[in-house]
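Ticket opened by: R.M.
Priority: normal
Category: complex prediction / small molecule

The reporter submitted a protein together with adenosine-5'-triphosphate and asked that the result be attached to this ticket for the collaborator who will pick it up next week. Submitted input follows.
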Amino acid sequence: MDTADTPENQASRPFHLLEAEDVCALLEVTPTDGLTSEAVTLRRHKYGTNEIIETVGHPWWRILLGQFTDFMIVVLIAAAAVSGILGELTDAIAIIVIIILNALVGFIQEFRAEQAVIALKQMARTIVRVRRDKITHVLAAAELVPGDIVLLEAGNMVPADIRLLEAIDLEVDESALTGESLPVHKIIASIKDKDTILAERHNMLFRGTLTTRGRATGVVTATGMQTELGKIAVMLDSETIQKTPIQKRLAVFGRKLALSIIAICTIIFVAGLLQGEDMIMMFLTAVSLAVAAIPEALPAVVTIAFALGASQLVRQHALIRRLPAVETLGSVTFICSDKTGTLTRNAMHAELFYIAGVEYTTLASRDAISSEIKIFIQALALNNDVEKNPTGKLIGDPTEIALLQAALDTGIDNTALSKSWPRMAEVSFDSSRKRMTTFHQGKEQLLAFTKGAPEQVLEHCTSDIHGQFSHAAILDIANHWAMRGYRVIAYAYRDWPALPEPIDANNVEQELTFLGLAGLMDPPRDEVPAAVRECYQAGIKPVMITGDHPATARAIAERIGLVHDHADVITGKQLERLTDEQLSGQVNHTQIYARVSPQQKIRLVQLLQQRGEYVAMTGDGVNDAPALKKADIGIAMGEKGTDVAREAADMVLMDDNFATIVRAIREGRRIYDNIRKFIKYAMTGNSGEIWTLFLAPILGLPLPLLPIHILWINLVTDGLPGLALGQEKAEENIMQRPPRHPQESIFAHGMWQHILWIGLLIGALSLFTQAWAIQNNIENWQTMVFTVLTFSQLIHVLAVRSEAQSLFTIGWLTNPALIGTVLLTILLQLGVIYISVFNSIFNTAPLSLEELLFCCTVPWLVLLAVEVEKWLVRHGMIYRDSN
Ligand code: ATP
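Result attached by the on-call engineer:
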């Protein structure tokens, strides 16, 4: 490679106009060997890593500035400035300092949330198969350099710009780059026309597109920002944080609430004037109250909770790709799951064989191997796409690994066998046909081996090696094995005089000679039965949708407790025959679907959704992508799935485990609960402040609080304790209650009543304190009201830690973060009362011991009230179904 050339020049070469060999020569690589480690190091130095520097997230200063652009904040700053100019300079400065502190809290939260989302994005990394130093490696896509030889198969994300060297039946979805929604067929021939546009460069693959069919080998021509996607990446102004349904609804609600609060504040302002209060002071008070009480930050706080929740979910092996999924997880009523790998371990092992009328439990160390067994072993060894990694580990589809392993266990030399029977052509596996065929050229023979689901292979068999052949008898054996939980694969072959034309399933998979059966066992995952039980308790129906045989599906379903004996199984063929109405009547209670094609999954999702169900669906193949998009929560596999499925999914299971879905649902419910608790806490506090200031003039009391007090309470009570509520553990019965209806109001189950009446109680306690202190000629009455209001909110935050459980049951110290912030806030409040500098800033005065005791006693009534409320809830007396 021309070392003086710049990466830009290099990448802009017209590789599509050149022949494949010339491209390799230009990039100084031999396709069969790949680059050497030294070459990779040099090129990495020159071209950098294969990463696109996206402009994700907002710059920090924009997030910070965003904190000050709220209309009421601007009014408050202006009002404070005016009051400062008119004389109350300290007051004005204090108010502005508090506004700044408040903004900082908001900024830190939002910044953390953005970072969490960006970190999530970066975890969704692609891995690729690369040939280097003559060996196939599995690497992170970021490590690719120009000249690397990349191996791709259906379902891969194209990791860089690539010139194709080999393309078998290759189709690519390029919509991400060109907008073209139909898959594009790719070939390797060079293109003659110099002016060919990107979308028509059929011998090139572009980063960010997806292979939907076939296999390919290619050489990397451009990486990172030099790729076509990299060139336009700057234009993709990706919205970093997606809005969740609740956030959207809260934004609408917030606007209405803001108007009501402004109306109340106007009344307070006018009432104050009528009572003879100073106008500027009254204006500042009214605006401060509006700023404190309008929950303008609520949608942001909710999103932050979801974003942080999503980063906690990663620790539970669930990677959230679309943020709204965190919220909607709690509404799932159906989990439609694949079987292999999700419910089972995907650690398959061949345990049974049927060859020429005899059943074997092993093929290994068979001394006198018959010709039937010999050719069967040959088929096991050759008909697969398994590869060996440098350490000798087999990489590929577990079904195929198990079958190849059975061949290797007999002691054959697979490398020699593959050399003497090289693969000439193939019709790759697809889950609708459920079979695959490979052609191998021997010295004198051209053999095609076909393997697949027994009924799919036998359908095309006309004889067996001895010419005697009974479909029914063999299917019967396969069925018996399936009933014992085995995945059964049938093998057949055909002797060809020459490669047929064209090589497609219809033409090739005909007139086969049956060879034998293999039975694979894939035991259920240990943690699945418990997860299934948890689903039932939580009102969620688990459903198995598999490409496997109905009997295998039922055997496994029974073993994990998904169904009881003799449960109904609907097969793909039956699905085809049922009308939508008929099927709709059955989807509600059918829990096993077998021999289903991915296309049929979409229909199942649709019908369930029409019945008002909220569906989570797993999938791993290319054809699963539409069903994953259609499901309310599409779930892809992190370990075995395709990139195509992952791109379409809302959530990725990093361990492919069904139990992880259930854990994520539990976590989703907890996060939602805690958001509700936060809203309940914050809005009840606001309601308490409004009641206090609204009722005071009506009761003939002077203005109970100064603007700075209101802002301070808002700052110390909303910020830290609110965040600590997010740490609250799951409620004890969280997985024993039915799923939340997705349209349910966040204020359901008595929340708005709580906000009003506990708020009123807090207001009453503050005004009682004020009246009592004035009555007893206590000069510090305002400091007392200020303290009672603050302490009431701190006690309230402890009381709302559970929706129904008593604080005495869940334990006072079980949320250390919350206890910590409550203690800190008490200390801050005492500082404001007893440190003289703050006395002048906050217009407070040190309280006597008696006065302080009074302020520490009265707020406990809030705890009493909330505990009574929870007792009534526990005994089903209030808020049973209220919305
Ligand atoms: P599950 O839901 O259990 O994960 P699946 O939907 O992944 O199953 P597929 O992989 O589509 O099932 O396989 C369907 C059927 O195709 C299997 O039962 C098996 O008979 C056959 N089959 C699977 N893998 C191969 C393969 N590599 N070659 C040939 N046939 C296969």
